Amino acid sequence: MILVLPVDLDDDLGRKTGVRTPVIGRDAVEEAAVKLATADPEDSDVNVLFQAINAYEDLLADPTVDEEVAVAAVTGVNEGDVKANRAVGEEVDTVLAALSTGEEVRAIVITDGAQDESVLPVIRSRVPLDGVRRVVVRQAQDLESIYYTMKQVLSDPETRGTILIPLGVLLLVYPFVVIAGMLDLPGAVVFGALSTLLGLYSLFQGLGLEETIDGTAERVRNSLYAGRVTIVTYLVAATLLVIGGVQGVETLQAVNSGDFSITQQAAVFVHAAVQWAAAAGITSSLGQVTDEYLAERFRWRYLNAPFYVVAIAIVLYGLSGYFLPRVPAAGLAPLTLTDLAVALTAGTLLGVLSTLTFAVAESRLSDGGGDGEAGVV
């Protein structure tokens, strides 16, 4: 028996038409091909299915072929070559079991390209191959088809931007360098600027940052329209963090930090900046709590955030202070071991007490007021 076997490795047939595979029999394959052509006329697997039907009928009409002929379409999955090849192998097994013939089965595989042909070793391990036919649409070789393809690609806004923007930047390099020379400007600066723009555009496209930036801008716009307090508090928090970083660097410069170890330099920086970082954390957390309250999603446990920030700041302040170098001119003096113990204890107690306090408050208000939100709204 000769089995004509069209292969659709990425399962366009199943995904686009809902047809269950494998598809066995000439009429069933033709019906599946018509459904796929209706769903997506440009899919190359349509040609594979019709080519399989054509090959099947040619074999039936060939007087030299004195054995049975069958046709069956098999598909893989759209999840990578390994899973797709395994799926094709399982469907080939199903087809061979369904044929129920006592004759030796040989297959003619029909594909539309090299990617689908990667499954040939899997098929060959189950049934001998009489040949492999790759379907190539003749019109695709014509100049008319190339023109149509280019026109279709350039009519798509996304593809047009991806192709034409880098090409436009490259074409502008020469005229801009010429203009820069006429104006006595260094051409290297213009070339560097255009190259930078092209590089940034390529990075944005390659890393998919365009969607991320668009999404962030949309969220910021929605937050402004909705009156989100966090817009302001996050901006203030970022400013406070910058001030803290500047304060830490200035303190390092003031104490001539090059004479100290890395640990002492880190202690100076943290000790000078930690209060600013704590203020930033408290500001941003209070803004978030306010927004949750206004959105009627408030929970008492949310109030832990500013207390946790203060507790962590106290611990960091104590630790960094303990490792400070002694610099009388800059007003720096290390904390004693007792001071460190007090700071660590205070930070721990503050975190534990805030957790217990708000847990008890939320539990009691939830029991008495419904679901925890009604207790404060």
Automatic annotation (TrEMBL):
Keyword vocabulary terms for this entry: Membrane, Transmembrane, Transmembrane helix
Keyword Lipid metabolism included in the entry's annotation: no
UniProt entry tagged with the keyword Protein transport: no
Spans traversing the lipid bilayer: 161-179, 185-204, 225-246, 266-290, 302-320, 340-361
Lineage: superkingdom: Archaea
Pfam assignment, any one: DUF373
Protein name per UniProt: DUF373 family protein
